[in-house]
Amino acid sequence: MKEDVITTTRNGHGLKDVYHPETKTILTLSESGSVLTEPHDSYDRRDKTQELREKSVRKQKLIYLHGFGSSAASHTVKTLRELLPEFDVAAPDIPVDPAEALPFLRGLCMNEVPDVVAGTSMGGMYAQQMRGYKRICINPAFEMSKKSKALTEGIHAYFSPRKNGDTHFEITPEIILHHAEMEERQFDRITDEDRRQVWGLFADNDRQVEGGETLFRKHYDQTVRFHGGHRMDEAVIRTVLVPLIRKICRQ
Asked: Cβ of 112: how many Cβ atoms within 10 Å?
C-alpha cells in the first residue's frame, strides 16, 4: 500500500501524518505506531506460566551404548526414545578400537552428565567402566577377546549405518590386542559406591555371551534376570529396562 506523508501544523508544531489514498484516512505517527504494537502487546499479555514452566524443567539424561557392530541408529535407541519421552536419550557411535572408544565415552559422560548410562553386550562392558554414574549393564560382553565369535580379523558390516554413512569396519590384530589389554583392567579400583550404582540385566537364553553374569557377580550385587535372548526385543525394553531406568533415577 502506498503511503503519502502530509505535513500539518498543530498548536504551532509541524507534525507528519500518514495518508492512505486507498482508505482515504490519515493516521498520525502515534496512531500508526499503535497499529504495529497492539498485536505484539496482546501477544505479550498471554499467560506464559505453563510455557516458562516447561522450559524450566530439565529432562533427565540417558546415554545408551550399543553393542559390537551396531550403531546409534539401532532399534533399541529408537524404542527408548519412544518409551522415555521425559528423557533426553543420547546414543553415540562408539569407535571400533577400545583405545579410542574408552576415552571418547568417558569424555562424553563428563560433557553430558547423564542420570544413567545403559549399554548392551560390548556397550554393557563399556558402561561398567563409566565410573561415577549410575549404570545398567545388559548382557555385558566382558571377555570379547577370549570368547566372542564376532571379534575376528577382517572387514565387517554394521547392523545399521553410522551417522557418517559408514556401513563397514575393519578389525585388526591391534584392535583385538587393545580389547584384551582393556579387559584385564576393566574391574580395577571398584569402590563400594560403584557397587551401589551398577545393575546387571541378564537374559535366561543368551547364546552369544557366556560367563557374563558369573563375572559380574564377582564384583557387583544388583542383578535382574529376564526371559529372552542376547538382544532385547521391544517387550523386554518396555517391561524390564524402562521401569528399571525410571526406578534408578528416582533413587
From this structure: 16
Question: How is the chain split into domains, by residue range?
Answer: 4-52, 61-250
Q: What is the pLDDT of residues 81-96, one digit of tens each?
A: 999 999 999 999 999 9
Largest CA distance in the chain: 98
The CA-CA-CA angle for residues 124, 186, 73, to 5°, reads 30
Q: What's the confidence (pLDDT) of residue 46?
A: 59
Q: Measure the CA–CA gap between 163 and 77, rounded to whole angstroms.
A: 13
Q: If you search the block for the grid coordinates 493516521, which residue do you land on?
A: 27
What average pLDDT does the segment 147-160 reach? 92
Three-state DSSP class for residue 235: helix
Do 239 and 83 touch, CB atoms closer than 8 A? no
Residue 17 pLDDT more than 50?
no
> CA torsion 112→248→189→204, rounded to 10°?
-110
Is residue 137 a contact partner of residue 232, using CB atoms and an 8 Å limit?
Answer: no
206-223 as b/e, with b when 16 or more CB fall inside 10 Å?
A: bebbeebbebbeeebebe
Strand pairing class (116-120; 60-65): parallel
The answer for 218, left when phi > 0, alpha when psi is -120 to 50, beta otherwise, is alpha
Architecture label for domain 61-250? 3-Layer(aba) Sandwich (3.40)
3-state secondary structure of 70: coil
Q: Average pLDDT, whole number, for the chain?
A: 85
- DSSP-assigned beta bridge partners for residue 4: 19
Cβ atoms of 123 and 66 within 8 Å: the answer is yes
